[in-house]
Write a structure and sequence with these properties.
Layout: E1 6-11, H1 32-39, E2 44-50, E3 71-74, E4 77-80, E5 106-110, H2 133-139, E6 144-150, H3 152-165, E7 169-178, H4 185-195, E8 199-201
Parallel strand pairs: 1-2, 1-6, 2-5, 6-7, 7-8
Antiparallel strand pairs: 3-4
Helix pairs in contact: 3-4
Length: 202
């Protein structure tokens, strides 16, 4: 059992990010059994859930003529335009049926504001609008977080970078994550995490 100061943060293990989903990450379902096994080692377990309205600004479908995976500029900076995914109340937004959800004390829903995307478990993509996770963890005495889930190079990496920036000791278990790897995004994310002091482990 890990110390009570350690928390497990499980990022976006949802149907739309698993094979057959609208924004499937290759092998996204392969990590679930390992994640389930990790949950018993942690006193604090948090799940995050992408939870978008259908009119979300990050969806290519809401930008006439824009191709999925193209880039646009939002008031908060560059934004990938994604295929429509994890729409509130849809099967695609549900946690994968094999993921254990009962050990989690908290579910953080993110990306529910239509005008701004949210990769990180801690902040929207403006890097200032907080989800409340920082306060929750600090109130529970958590000083170290272990991150797993989908996808390594987007929501996991953004969460790990924010955790480090907020003063948590952050570890990403890469074997319990899978990446989208869009135009070299995985190598970029790994370099950024290492530079920020995030531990990358198998």
């Amino acid at each position: 059992m890990r110390p009570a100061t350690d928390a497990l943060i499980v990022i976006d293990v949802q149907n739309d990010f698993c094979p057959g989903g609208a924004l499937a990450v290759a092998g996204g379902d392969e990590i679930i059994s390992r994640i389930n096994g990790l949950m018993g080692d942690f006193t604090t377990v948090v799940l995050t859930q992408d939870w978008h309205p259908a009119n979300h600004a990050s969806f290519a479908a809401n930008h006439p003529g824009a191709a999925p995976f193209s880039l646009t500029t939002m008031p908060y900076g560059p934004q990938v335009l994604w295929p429509t995914h994890c729409v509130q109340g849809t099967t695609g937004a549900d946690f994968h049926k094999d993921l254990r959800t009962d050990p989690a004390q908290l579910v953080i829903r993110k990306g529910f504001r239509s005008e701004i995307d949210s990769y990180s478990a801690f902040f929207e993509n403006d890097r200032t609008t907080a989800t409340g996770l920082e306060g929750y963890l600090k109130n529970r005495g958590v000083t170290s977080v272990t991150l797993v889930g989908l996808a390594t190079d987007y929501c996991v990496a953004y969460s790990a970078l924010d955790a480090a920036r907020l003063g948590f000791k952050a570890t990403v278990l890469e074997g319990a994550c899978r990446a989208i790897n869009l135009n070299g995004s995985l190598a970029d994310a790994q370099a950024q995490m290492r530079a920020a002091g995030v531990a990358l482990e198998a």
